[in-house]
Design brief:
The protein is an alpha+beta fold. The protein contains 18 helices and eight strands. It has a four-stranded antiparallel beta sheet. Strands 1-2 form a two-stranded antiparallel ribbon.
Length: about 475
């Protein structure tokens, strides 16, 4: 070891290995989601086209490759290329090349995904997008097997996990009263954005268990994260508790890659010496140590605003403080809905709406529709349209910029849009009219499930969009 050897330690080899391989896997899923969904959402003929967006938003506010050039073909190349590179890194390609090349590979992943997020508009406004970018930025400087892991960067990963968990815990205590009286889980499993196949069963647990779930959540998010900064093996125990909690959430619902990324971050805190002898990895070169030190200072300086946000009684959730998403603030479910409202889209071949018209429903892949269809598992894959339909059920404000274009594309039987759906009730010709109505959905009881085979019961609440046809003058 040279004089700079104190800067890195082979003791962190397992944490780095698990984090890098897991992060690359999450990246692969994220790029796959982009590649398979972008044409209908943000493509040249999408609901919120990128070319129109970059004409209105300058590069300094949304730095992206697509500010310089956009075409659907170029976007597809970036998305599929990102997925391929991520899979290569997940397979260990970063350990087979020199250190600068490995860093470049991680930097390309980060730059490509940043370019997508910064033109993704409403469809990419989720907290786990910024979380992936922040974790991905740190991954650039973690090195590979040709150098011992940098201690400062490994601790910054714990700082990120701490902000993720602690921020989520604080927003709950400061937000909905039901978190303080431990009743939020009376409702959450039923009203969460996209229930999974076990959500019905979680909802039907006895209420004392729901109160225990809520109390355990407070402990896991407010007390356990502090232990990440304690000596080993206590930090590994804290990481294990986070992993178990996140797996519980994976079982109870579909939250895209949020839970999986939290698990990957927690694994970075695992002490490899508890399981096997750490390999003797080379000390880092001087240039690399200087670069890591500079990045550490940058992250700490940029952490001031997120840290102040954590301490603020007016804490904000899921906010980026810079266009590169380097250091962000996180949080989830500061409020929990008591009632589930779903927007149901229907079409008819009738040229005019009348009481006898036959309306057929569009079925989505993930969001509730057919009451007899059991919710499906999709996470870590992210069904962006399904999630935004959940927000539309909360308030039409959330659908202001994309719902009209969605209806237009259904009236055209747009191929790319229909690929986002599970079922198109008009396979041969587009409908003449499309409408949307709001239903209240609730999980059935055990008795209702046995008698009807239905997982949901629904009742009509109101009209969301009156029968609409294409504008023939357009």
């Amino acid at each position: 070891m040279d004089w700079f050897g104190w800067f890195a330690s082979s003791d962190y080899w397992l944490g780095r290995l698990l984090f890098q391989r897991g992060l690359a896997g999450v990246y692969a899923v994220a790029f796959l989601c982009a590649a398979l969904q972008f044409r209908a959402l943000i493509g040249e003929r999408g609901m919120l086209p990128v070319p129109r967006y970059v004409r209105l938003v300058p590069w300094r506010r949304a730095p992206s490759l697509f500010q310089a050039h956009y075409s659907d073909r170029f976007f597809a190349l970036c998305a599929w290329g990102g997925a391929a590179l991520a899979l290569a890194l997940a397979a260990g390609a970063g350990d087979l090349v020199p250190l600068p090349v490995a860093m470049l590979m991680w930097a390309v992943l980060w730059g490509l995904y940043l370019s997508i997020v910064n033109v993704g508009q409403t469809w990419y406004g989720f907290g786990w997008e910024s979380l992936l970018l922040e974790a991905g930025f740190l991954a650039i400087f973690l090195g590979n097997e040709r150098t011992a892991p940098p201690v400062l960067l490994m601790w910054l990963l714990r700082w990120l996990l701490f902000r993720l968990e602690f921020g989520a815990g604080l927003i709950k205590l400061r937000g909905d009263l039901c978190w303080r009286n431990l009743t939020c889980l009376y409702y959450h499993h039923e009203t969460q954005p996209m229930p999974g196949p076990l959500s019905w069963f979680f909802h039907r647990l006895p209420r004392p268990l729901h109160r225990m779930e809520a109390a355990a959540n407070h402990v896991t998010q407010l007390a356990v994260p502090v232990l990440l900064f304690t000596p080993q093996p206590l930090a590994t125990v804290a990481a294990g508790i986070v992993v178990v909690t996140q797996l519980w959430l994976v079982l109870s619902g579909n939250f895209s890659w949020l839970n999986w990324l939290a698990i990957v971050l927690a694994l970075s805190a695992v002490d490899g010496n508890l399981f096997t002898t750490a390999p003797a990895l080379p000390a880092p070169p001087l240039w690399y140590g200087i670069l890591v030190a500079a990045v550490t200072v940058l992250v700490l300086v940029l952490s001031l605003r997120p840290a102040r946000n954590l301490l603020s009684p007016r804490q904000a959730m899921n906010r980026s403080f810079d266009p590169l998403h380097l250091v962000n603030t996180y949080g989830a479910f500061g409020s929990v809905g008591r009632v589930r409202h779903e927007v149901v889209l229907e079409g008819t071949e009738e040229p005019a709406a009348h009481p006898g018209a036959v309306w057929r429903e569009y079925e989505f892949k993930g969001k509730p529709g057919d009451v007899r269809r059991m919710p499906r598992p999709f996470a870590p894959y992210h069904l962006r349209l399904d999630w935004m339909m959940w927000f539309a059920g909360i308030s039409p404000v959330y659908a202001a910029d994309w719902f009209g274009p969605l209806v237009e594309r259904l009236l055209e039987n747009d191929r790319d849009t229909l690929r986002l759906l599970r079922h198109n009730p008009f396979p041969d010709a587009p409908p003449a009219l499309v409408r949307a109505r709001v239903y209240r959905y609730r999980f059935t009881t055990w008795r209702e499930l046995r008698e009807t085979g239905a997982w949901w019961h629904r009742t009509l609440v109101r009209e969301f969009l009156p029968p609409t046809r294409l504008d023939s003058s357009a």
